[in-house]
Specification:
Layout (H helix, E strand, L loop, with lengths): L9 E11 L9 H9 L5 E4 L2 E5 L5 E6 L9 H17 L3 E4 L9 H4 L8 H11 L4 H4 L3 E7 L3 H14 L4 H4 L4 E2 L2 E2 L5 H8 L19 H16 L10 H4 L4 E4 L4 E8 L4 H19 L6 H5 L3 H14 L4 E2 L2 H5 L9 E2 H11 L1 H5 L3 H13 L2 H9 L5 H17 L6
Antiparallel strand pairs: 1-4, 1-5, 1-6, 2-3, 3-4, 6-10, 7-8, 9-10, 11-12
Helix pairs in contact: 2-11, 6-11, 11-17
């Protein structure tokens, strides 16, 4: 079946923490890093096909490819080069870059500094409505995977596939097991905060799993119009646009013909992030090609049951037991009464072996290591042990910082 615009254009955004080299406490210096490179205070620094930019919190900096690329594997080297350059600038100010999706002991109520320049009006408006001094706002770092489409029909096909896959993505991407100096019991603490973060206006996040809408017109009617309605009384000056507000786990970006997946925790190095993105893209390609189930079956997947699997997965990760027969059937596993997320991912990886082999040995090897050893959260928990003291947390997270600069996977 023809998919002229699917899986031809990709984008990745990686968010990292800046922390003090000596204590690993957060260092709110992203504006200084950008100014060092640009020579002036700026929100973004362009570097060829790559770019650096600010985020809501002043201790977070984002690296991205500034325009779509035709293949994901090439981005490993590109991102690693940017990581090393930002690290060099940070070192000059006594700081380093730190991976993972949440700082393990940051106090957001006393250590949060919001971005004070440029588009600060947007951030200030968010702060007035939601109070951004909490973990779910100022202590969250993620990977955004952007997948392009060319037509409305392709959008519907891709959105249907993404809705189906989102519930089990934390099983491979969770990297936030520790908050406030302790293990939380959730493998993906970031997503637990994320899904409860905007309860004041529940429709902004909804159930994180996007609604079953499969055209731009239906998306406008079912998501953007209600968003504008719900925010109106809280934002009388109209500063916040619906496209920015939409906080579902995957959001449509019709301005650039892409769907942005937002439920992926940032990993320990670009190799890990790109490797998972390659695996995810391969599985989504299989879904859009109706390899395991038909398009109409995928479209019929209701949001409630998908959200139930998602919540279980952000807690238990790869050990989540999936006993929804209809869900497993979407991946051609309807004969199974139950499967763990780990078992399902291993079988999907096997089904997509050809696509992964084409991505190169390093990516294939990284995917295999993650599936064998568990998501980064599981490996961090093993390294920390039960009830870790601050010194042990600092030791393990310092090693994660070394993994980032050296471009290697973390092993417990």
């Amino acid at each position: 079946m023809s998919q002229s615009g699917l899986f031809k254009k990709f984008g990745i955004e990686l968010e990292y923490m800046l922390v003090r080299e000596d204590t690993l406490d957060v260092a709110p210096i992203a504006d200084r890093i950008l100014q060092q490179k640009a020579g002036v205070v700026t929100n973004e620094v362009e570097r060829g096909i790559m770019a650096w930019s600010n985020e809501l919190a002043l201790h977070v900096i984002e690296i991205k490819n500034s325009g779509p690329v035709s293949g994901l594997p090439m981005l490993v080297e590109k991102f690693q080069k940017e990581v090393k350059e930002i690290s060099r600038l940070a070192n000059e100010q006594g700081a380093i870059l730190l991976p993972t999706a949440m700082h393990p002991w940051m106090d957001p109520h006393t250590e949060t500094h919001l971005w004070p320049h440029g588009n600060k009006d947007i951030y200030n408006t968010y702060n007035l409505i939601f109070n951004c001094q909490g973990h779910g706002w100022s202590n969250v770092q993620s990977t955004h995977l952007n997948l392009g489409f060319a037509t409305d029909e392709e959008f519907g096909r891709l959105h249907a596939a993404i809705r189906v896959l989102v519930p089990i993505l934390p099983a491979i991407a969770a990297s936030s097991p520790a908050v406030d100096g302790t293990l939380t019991g959730w493998l993906d603490s970031r997503l637990e905060y994320y899904r409860n973060n905007q309860k004041r206006i529940p429709f902004i996040t909804s159930q994180v799993i996007p609604e079953p809408v499969f055209s731009e017109a239906d998306y406008e009617q079912a998501i953007y119009t209600p968003l504008r309605r719900d925010i109106a009384s809280h934002d009388p000056n109209g500063i916040l646009e619906a496209e920015w507000l939409n906080s579902r786990g995957a959001i449509a970006r019709f301005d650039r013909n892409a769907i942005e997946i937002r439920v992926l925790d940032i990993q320990e190095c670009p190799l890990a992030d790109v490797s998972l993105s390659v695996l995810i893209s391969a599985v989504l390609k299989g879904l859009t090609e109706e390899r395991w189930s038909g398009l109409e079956e995928q479209k019929a997947a209701t949001t409630g049951p998908l959200a139930e699997i998602f919540v279980k997965t952000i807690k238990d990760g790869e050990e989540t037991v999936i006993d929804d027969h209809r869900y497993l059937a979407l991946f051609g596993r309807g004969r199974n009464a139950t499967m763990t997320s780990k078992e399902l991912w291993r079988e999907l990886d096997s089904d997509c072996a050809q696509e992964l082999a084409g991505a190169g040995h390093a990516i294939q090897e990284s995917v295999e290591a993650i599936l064998a050893q568990g998501p980064l959260s599981r490996r961090i928990i093993r390294a920390l042990g039960e009830n870790p003291e601050r010194a042990r947390l600092r030791e393990v997270y310092r090693e994660l910082g070394k993994c980032l600069v050296q471009g290697r996977l973390f092993e417990a």
